[in-house]
Design goal:
single chain; Multidrug-efflux Transporter Regulator, Chain: A, Domain 2; three-stranded antiparallel sheet; 6 strands; elongated
Length: about 210
């Protein structure tokens, strides 16, 4: 058995008495150190990462938020036990039901171009970009679609956007860009660029006039 801080031992005993009608969480105080990370919190509570992060950010479980990428949250084990016990003894203080079961609103929403075929989107882009050169560089593509050059580079590296290497340069044929970007517009995502949103709205206006 791990050595437990003398301050925590009385607490462990008190939880056994206090939570006689609920689950006995005192073993957690013996199994984990006085302070834990959010990764350990996942394992203790069997909650999703999203729920644990929300509970910490909204004060349901007290913590020290360091604001760093690694070990951002420092959580006292005793506070976790108090939270779990409270949720059983007073469920009215639990987070709203369904908050973590439902998908984010943008995932549930119907994609704007759901009823528009890929062929129609491609035809729209061909017309919209008719004056653009047939061969484009990464910076040209970034300006056309409104995403950063770094994002365009990732599309290429991940072999989503096809290209032709020309004298140590990456050249993207316009037709291949249209082919790939039509799929992106069709799928829709929560973090679409302002340019993509404008193109989508313009296409929908055209469709409504047909």
């Amino acid at each position: 058995m791990k050595k437990v801080d003398t301050v925590l031992l009385p607490l462990a005993n008190s939880y056994q008495t206090e939570a006689a009608m609920s689950t006995n969480y005192s073993s957690i105080l013996h199994a984990y150190p006085e302070k834990i990370s959010i990764e350990q919190l996942y394992r203790i509570c069997h909650f999703s990462k999203r729920k644990c992060k929300w509970l910490l950010e909204n004060g349901y479980i007290p913590c020290e938020d360091r604001g760093t990428k690694t070990w951002r949250f420092v959580i006292r084990t005793v506070d976790v036990v108090e939270y779990l016990t409270l949720m059983e003894t007073d469920p009215s203080k639990a987070p709203p039901k369904g908050l973590f079961n439902a998908a984010p609103a943008w995932e549930k929403a119907t994609p704007p171009l759901e009823r528009v075929s890929l062929t129609e989107i491609r035809q729209f882009l061909q017309e919209r970009w008719s004056e653009q050169p047939d061969a484009l560089y990464e910076e040209d593509v970034a300006k056309l679609v409104g995403y950063s050059r770094n994002t365009i580079h990732k599309w290429i590296v991940n072999r989503r956007l096809k290209y032709v290497p020309v004298l140590n340069e990456v050249v993207i044929p316009k037709n291949w860009l249209i082919e790939y970007f039509a799929i992106i517009m069709k799928k829709h995502c929560s973090r679409e660029s302002a340019t993509q949103r404008t193109l989508t709205e313009e296409l929908l206006r055209r469709k409504s006039r047909e």
